[in-house]
């Protein structure tokens, strides 16, 4: 059993907040009965209709991996009219991104209309490794690298750094490129982590998500995930 607004969002019909509005306006029926209570719990087998249209019948799930370019927003729509990750994918399905990458961050992002899958991957208890390449505006000292590896606190909570590698040092420009693997998904977490050391991230790209990478995808390209990959991601999350 799940809250009705959560299930509506999981089916990819709309956001949880908008689903609450629909419920309040008596536009949602469960098994033919109008529901107005926001907390109402329903079953995945219950027939949910909105404005007379059943939303959870024959929903075909779709799963994509995209190499997000810069200046694209990780959202379904944008009030300011900016291009979204959903705009880059040729489908009529109501897909949405699993987690976020900043507007200026490039790289690997998963999109789906399978709410259960998305929630599973995003749940903080499932520590899926995310690997980033970051260009920094300073060269880290050995001590600072040690600090990062042993866990720096961001907003009062330590960031568990699973792997850290220096990829390149440019002494003339005083910049450094590093590869960092973390398991959490807090917004702006990599930028905030380096901010703790008074550094700015000049460029950021996500190159890995669990066992997935984007070596086969150019900027803006995408492909569907295979059944094997989807199952493997589920297993990874539920381990
Ligand atoms: N951390 C950030 O700071 N930005 C991202 O886009 C992803 C992780």
Secondary-structure blueprint:
Layout: E1 2-3, H1 4-10, H2 16-24, E2 28-30, E3 33-34, E4 41-42, E5 48-50, E6 53-54, E7 63-68, E8 96-97, E9 106-112, H3 115-122, E10 130-136, H4 142-150, E11 153-154, E12 157-158, E13 161-170, E14 175-182, H5 189-195, E15 201-209, E16 212-213, E17 222-224, H6 227-238
Parallel strand pairs: 9-15
Antiparallel strand pairs: 1-4, 2-3, 2-5, 5-6, 7-9, 7-17, 8-9, 10-14, 10-15, 11-12, 13-14, 15-16
Bound molecules: uracil.
Uracil is lined by residues 101-102, 105, 188-191, 204.
Overall tally of domains: 3
Distance between the termini: 23 Å
Order of helices and strands: EHHEEEEEEEEHEHEEEEHEEEH
Bound small molecules, by name, code or SMILES, are: uracil
Instruction: Identify the CATH class of the largest domain.
Output: Alpha Beta
Q: What structural category characterises the helix and strand content?
A: alpha+beta
Tell me, rounded to a whole number, the average pLDDT: 93
Write out the CATH superfamily name of the largest domain.
Pseudouridine synthase I, catalytic domain, N-terminal subdomain
Helix content: 10-25%
Could you describe the 3D structure shown?
- The protein is an alpha+beta fold and 239 residues long.
- The protein has 3 domains: 53 residues, Roll (Structural Genomics Hypothetical 15.5 Kd Protein In mrcA-pckA Intergenic Region, Chain A); 87 residues, Alpha-Beta Plaits, CATH 3.30.70.580; 81 residues, Pseudouridine synthase.
- Helices cover 22% and strands 30% of the residues.
- The chain contains 6 helices and 17 strands.
- Helix 1 crosses helix 2.
- The protein is elongated and about 70 Å long.
- The two termini are 23 Å apart.
């Amino acid at each position: 059993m799940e809250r009705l607004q959560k299930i509506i969002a999981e089916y990819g019909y709309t956001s949880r907040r908008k689903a609450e509005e629909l419920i309040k306006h008596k536009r949602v029926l469960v098994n033919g009965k109008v529901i107005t209570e926001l907390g109402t719990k329903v079953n995945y087998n219950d027939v949910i209709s909105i404005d007379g249209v059943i939303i959870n019948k024959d929903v075909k799930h779709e799963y994509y991996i995209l190499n997000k370019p810069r200046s694209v927003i990780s959202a379904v729509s944008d009030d300011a009219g900016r291009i979204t990750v959903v705009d880059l994918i040729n489908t009529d399905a109501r897909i949405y991104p699993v987690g976020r990458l900043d507007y200026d961050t490039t790289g690997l992002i998963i999109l789906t209309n399978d709410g259960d899958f998305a929630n599973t991957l995003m749940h903080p208890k499932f520590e899926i490794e995310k690997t980033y390449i970051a260009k920094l505006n300073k060269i880290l000292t050995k001590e600072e690298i040690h600090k990062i590896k042993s866990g720096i606190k961001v907003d009062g909570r330590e960031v568990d750094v699973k792997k850290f590698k220096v990829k390149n040092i440019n002494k003339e420009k005083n910049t450094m490129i590093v590869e960092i693997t973390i398991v959490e998904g807090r917004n702006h977490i990599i930028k905030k982590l380096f901010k703790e050391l008074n550094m700015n991230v000049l460029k950021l790209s996500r190159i890995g998500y669990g066992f997935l990478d984007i070596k086969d995808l150019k900027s803006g390209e995408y492909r569907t995930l295979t059944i094997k990959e989807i199952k493997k991601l589920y297993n990874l999350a539920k381990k």
